[in-house]
Amino acid sequence: MKFLALLFRTSPASLILVTLFGLLSGASNAGLIALINHALASQLQVGSAVALGFVGLGVLTLLLRYGTQALVNKLNGDALFDMRMRLARQVVATPLRRLEEQGIPNVMTVLTEDLFVISTALGVLPRFLTNIAIALGCCVYLAWLSWQLLVGLLLVIALSVVGYRLLARSAIRDLQRTREHQGALYKQLRGLTEGIKELKLHQERRAAFLTEEVEATSSLVRALQIRIGNVFAATGSLGMLLSFAFVGALIFVMPGLGWVQPSVLVGYCIAALYLQQPLQSVMETLPILSRGDVSWTKVHQLGLTLDSLGSDAPALPERGHRATFQTVELVGVTHTYYREESDGHFVVGPIHLRMHAGELIFLVGGNGSGKTTLAKLLTGLYQPEGGQILVDGQPITEQTQESYRQLFSAVFSDFYLFERLLGLVGEGTASQVQHYLSLLQLSRKVRIDGGVLSTTELSLGQRKRLALLTAYLEDRPIYLFDEWAADQDPAFKAVFYTELLPELKRKGKTVVVISHDDRYFGVADRVLRLDAGKLVAPAESAPALQERAS
Ligand SMILES: Nc1ncnc2c1ncn2[C@@H]1O[C@H](COP(=O)(O)OP(=O)(O)OP(=O)(O)O)[C@@H](O)[C@H]1O
């Protein structure tokens, strides 16, 4: 079972301690049964010593049971914490392109649904392990009573396990299918929230969405879940049936054969009945652990791994800061998207481009010409498939990629605005923030207290201004704006192109602006045009473009 491996890797010493406690707990349970058996065998004619022993063992059993569970709870808590942190760090460390290929909804399903299922599976482990320990303790006592009968009992347990595996095989396949459908359902539910306006405005679309998508997938999930539930109920009943058959054989068959003393048979009956509860519980937790296994595989399929936790979990990316540079050069840089629907490719590049410190460059081109892709290559979010990027003549390698990205502050068109100024609060930030809030004409809308934005419930244009504010605070040598001005009113658009951009340039910043606002192209030192993924030499110089536009 993968979870045990997870716990062992998290803290081998704790797991050994848990095992020890569990075995002691099992032994004390066995002692309790032996004592009950002894009392019954002596027709309840026992002295106060046995009664005291019963109380003592009872208390010890409870304490050990509690101790084992508390230890496993702690171990689980640690394992879950490590797993969450590891996953979060791994997602941050996973190349952007790989996450995009997996699809953001899939990543979200893994981070929410699968993590929840794995957490639940880890949550039932204390019960599972404690019950296994009780069963083991009972088996030791039963071996002492009669090892031949124990062999019989173990055969019954083995039969239950084989029966479980045979019956559960189809259910486990169904669990995998359910997980796939749940992924699809999650994606559809995203449509429910993100597409709410489109759904509200169009009755037929709404009806089709609810019946053909959500209802269709939900009913598939429902059918599978009912089937899975029934199969696991049957596996539980099988265990119970075999256990009754065993007890029945002890009471009605064995005395006739005369192989074993009646007192031993009574002891076995009591122990077998006592064992039923923990074994039943083990059977009930197995489906939850199976679900956990399916989710575990999903996490792995995302390219993330939970195999090794603790010390070798990937550390937070190092903060590498290159404060300055003279040139950034793209030499034959390429990136290819595969287009499933046409079984074709869209290639950006090979791009040859040299950028100098302090330049103000506009990147222009039609929709889908590859501007954002080139921006992702330039900022190091995509690693070039072909060619290389050089900073001051030094090629960027896998090792220096992270530090290269720290040269950039970017506001992409699908930017995300964090509610806190994460990693940006330092001495003098408050006055800087105040300055930028007035510069961006936001001081009457937003306050920032203790690094927290008073609101992000703003218009898209206003949120973009806040994203620009964080970019200002980052104070990196290169700025990249992907159609930043597209959602600004004409007056502020003019402020952006004619005041903010030149101001950044005056401060020595290099600025790359993806823009469709041709009337402001003249502000740029250079205008680069992309067409079908290729950089084409601008037909006109920047001033000429401006002249044409005005
Ligand atoms: N994540 C992706 N997966 C597959 N193909 C993609 C992906 N992103 C972009 N593409 C494809 O690459 C091409 C270039 O896209 P890109 O977003 O770079 O263009 P753009 O010039 O920024 O367009 P726009 O002006 O519309 O924002 C598009 O034709 C698009 O189909």
Helical content, roughly?
55-70%
Question: H/E order of the elements?
Answer: HHHHHHHHHEEEHEEHEHEEHEHEEEH
Highest-level CATH class of the largest domain = Mainly Alpha
Number of structurally distinct domains:
2
- Ligand names: adenosine-5'-triphosphate
Shape: elongated
CA radius of gyration: 33 Å
Enumerate the strands of the largest sheet in spatial order, edge to edge or round the barrel: 6-9-10-3-11-12
What's the end-to-end separation, in Å?
Answer: 71 Å
Q: Total helix count?
A: 15
Query: Strand count, sense and closure of the main sheet?
Result: 6 strands, mixed
Average pLDDT works out at 83
> Strand portion, in percent?
5-15%
**Strand-pairing-aware structural class:** alpha/beta
Give a short overview:
Residues 328-550 form the ABC transporter domain. The chain is of the alpha/beta class and 550 residues long. It has 15 helices and twelve strands.
Give a written overview of the molecule.
The strands form three sheets. Strands 6-9-10-3-11-12 form a six-stranded mixed beta sheet, sandwiched between helices. It has a four-stranded antiparallel beta sheet with strand order 2-1-4-5, with helices on one face. The protein has a two-stranded antiparallel sheet with strand order 7-8. Helix 2 (12-41) runs antiparallel to helix 9 and helix 5 (104-145) packs antiparallel against helix 9 (262-301). The chain is elongated and about 105 Å long. With 550 residues, the protein is α/β, with parallel strands linked by helices. Strand 7 (448-449) and strand 8 form a beta hairpin. It contains 15 helices and twelve strands. The protein has two domains: 2-186 and 226-307, ABC transporter transmembrane region fold, CATH 1.20.1560.10; 327-549, Rossmann fold, CATH 3.40.50.300. The structure holds adenosine-5'-triphosphate. Adenosine-5'-triphosphate (ATP) binds at residues 100, 337, 346, 365, 367-373.
